[in-house]
Amino acid sequence: MKQDMIVILDLGSSENTTLAREIRALGVYSEIHPHDITKEELNQLPNVKGVILNGGEHRHVDGKDIDVLPEIYEAGYPVIAIDHALACCEVKLSAYPTEEQLKDFVFATCKAEANWNMKNFVADQVERIRSQVGDKKVLLALSGGVDSSVVAAMLIKAIGKQLVCVHVNHGLMRKGESESVVEVFKNQMDANLVYVDASERFLKKLENVDDPEAKRKIIGAEFIRVFEEEARKLEGIDFLAQGTIYPDIVESGTKTAKVVKSHHNVGGLPEDLEFELVEPLYYLFKDEVRACGVELGLPHDMVYRQPFPGPGLGVRCLGAITRERLEAVRESDAILREEFAKSGLDQKVWQYFTIVPDFKSVGVKYNARCFEYPVILRAVNTIDAMTASIEQIDWAILEKITDRILKEVPNVNRVCYDLTPKPCGTIEWE
User: Fold this and answer.
1) pLDDT 10s digit of each residue in the chain, 430 long?
2) Does 294 share its domain with 158?
3) Do 347 and 252 share a structural domain?
4) Residue 144 phi/psi, 5° resolution?
5) Are 314 and 352 in contact (CB under 8 A)?
6) Does any domain span residue 424?
7) Is the residue at 342 inside a domain?
């Protein structure tokens, strides 16, 4: 492996991701792992140079303070503790380390080299994939979003035609999304691509389901069932690849942090999963995923395309999904994306989309009373998807988008703009 690694053990800190990114900013790779990792599991990680016990306000779990296993201190790595009084190591910091303290531990104590970069990361992950998969086949859930596209490119580089990409049209895709996936991956990248139209199957499963967590779990589980069916048709599929990234893990809940929302590729997976998972982007943040895509040679438009959640428009059609509101989301989203592209905002704003809630209000159309749905616009900027700020859109652009939506999208009589940052809102609305 080409990169040295510092392992962060989560002992209740809310700053694990900040610490990991600061270490990577020093040029050294870092990963966050649960506090109860075993010595054997730690030793299986490649090129570990040191361990940080990162304590904090969430150290009290299930009625007691958590701690690492005693064997961790005997694993042979330098250990430093941050805000963790129970630690048995020599160096214990009471507060978050300064830049100098962090540099001293990483370079002077751990003797780590500053060899973290995307070229080395890709090389390491390709080696890991080949070691894990061998000569077996891998099934990839290819949504066409940034994460799954980057995973597809990495797997093609690692194992070529052993990869089978399955694109499932669950009826919750953006306008023209499935067609674009087929064009890029099948026609341009020569990937093994299976297209499955399961729209009716998914929409039937989601009938009368209004809880967002339930919708995510249904969509996630149904995805897996579709893949299992396709795998049986293909024969010899032993692995399932996913574009899981670290914010998905954090928001789906860890041993020290409660669930924000379950991501279909984390909280929605069935317990009787028949495949071993391949997740090469597991510890990356969104900006790092894009950098990885550039390193792999993916087209700029693909790498920097709009993020799109795995459950698709199902999380933007709030409450129980109806075909009427689903179509309103799809058409209003297409208008928003078109107008942002015209104004250059598509190059400036990280993520933008529309939401249609499950309530109506009175309005006036064609000189008559109407009782229809609102469309909510959301546009946010972020670096790592852990926090997000609101883009201040020019008023004339908002007016034009509003005018088009009200004229072109059926069953809509209001347009609103969401000004809520993350936190306390999430990027999505459910």
Assistant:
1) 789 999 999 998 989 999 999 999 999 999 999 999 999 999 999 999 999 999 988 888 777 889 999 999 999 999 999 999 999 998 999 999 999 999 999 999 999 999 999 999 999 999 999 999 999 999 998 888 889 999 999 999 999 999 999 899 999 999 988 888 888 888 887 889 999 999 999 999 999 999 988 998 899 889 878 877 887 888 788 898 988 888 777 654 455 544 334 444 444 455 666 788 999 999 898 889 999 999 998 888 788 887 788 788 999 999 999 999 999 999 999 999 999 999 999 989 999 999 999 999 999 998 999 999 999 999 999 987 789 999 999 999 999 999 999 999 999 999 999 999 999 899 998 7
2) yes
3) no
4) 100, -5
5) no
6) no
7) yes
Q: With contact defined as beta carbons under 8 Å apart, do 81 and 87 qualify?
A: yes
Identify whether the C-beta of residue 55 lies closer than 8 Å to the C-beta of residue 92. Answer: no
Task: Identify the CA nearest to 16 among candidates 70, 78, 72, 59.
Answer: 59
- Residue 105 and residue 122 in one domain: no
Task: Let me know whether 286 and 142 are in one domain.
Answer: yes
Give the up-direction half-sphere exposure of residue 223: CA atoms within 13 A in the CB hemisphere.
Answer: 32
Q: Looking at the structure, do residues 29 and 99 belong to the same domain, yes or no?
A: yes
Residue 168 pairs with which residues in a beta bridge? 196
CATH code assigned at 63: 3.40.50.880
**Tokens at 118, concatenated:** 């995307």
Q: Please report whether residue 248 resides in a domain.
A: yes
The CA radius of gyration of the chain, in Å to the nearest whole number, is 23
Domain hosting residue 361, numbered range: 316-417
Distance between CA atoms of 7 and 44, rounded to whole angstroms? 12
First to last CA, the chain: 40
* 234 and 142 share one domain: yes
What CATH number does residue 299 fall under? 3.40.50.620
- Are 7 and 33 in contact, with CB atoms under 8 Å apart? yes
Closest of 310, 230, 311, 242 to residue 281, by C-alpha: 242
- Residues 236 and 360 placed together within one structural domain of the fold: no
Whether the Cβ atoms of residue 227 and residue 199 lie closer than 8 Å to each other: no
Among 303, 334, 360, residue at a domain's last position: 303
Asked whether 319 and 180 are in contact (CB, 8 A), the reply is no
Sign of CA dihedral 196, 198, 199, 200: positive
Residue (of 325, 209, 20, 57) closest to 5 by Cα position: 20
Number of domains in the chain: 3
Where a domain ends, among 303, 337, 363? 303
* Any domain includes 329: yes
